[in-house]
Amino acid sequence: MGKGRARFFAEDNLGSGPRRELAMPAHEVGMEVRCGYLDGGIAAWERAGLELATLPQIPIDELRIRIEEQTDLQIVDVRRPAAYATGHLPGAVNAELAHLEDKVGELDPSRRTVVACAGGYRSSAGRAFLNGVAFAIS
Questions:
Q1: Sheet holding 93-94, edge to edge
Q2: What's the predicted TM-score (pTM) here?
Q3: How far is Cα 7 from Cα 137, in angstroms, rounded to an integer?
């Protein structure tokens, strides 16, 4: 995905979710960010037959099972180093979202990859970025 390529983040309910918290981390990794609303929501987009891409988000209990069962799982923690140092998922590597593009060469795009953070906003932007550069996002 990288610099110069736009991604649009959409929500079904215009009044839900702190868009700034999603847009700012996306901007940090060089994504051009557009904010607005979609008249008729995602359902209108689908009815129009337009392309729609989604990335999975998994609950922590499911992640625990995946960590136990998938020994080749690559876990990328996109929090700042100080937050990572206070505790992180077993086997996770730290690649702060603001520097993810610089760290991508240290990661293996062929491995199933989980992107984690504390609240979900940075990991959403990190997943979108890694997906855009051909990572196998889990």
A1: 93-94, 74-77, 112-116, 136-137
A2: 0.69
A3: 17
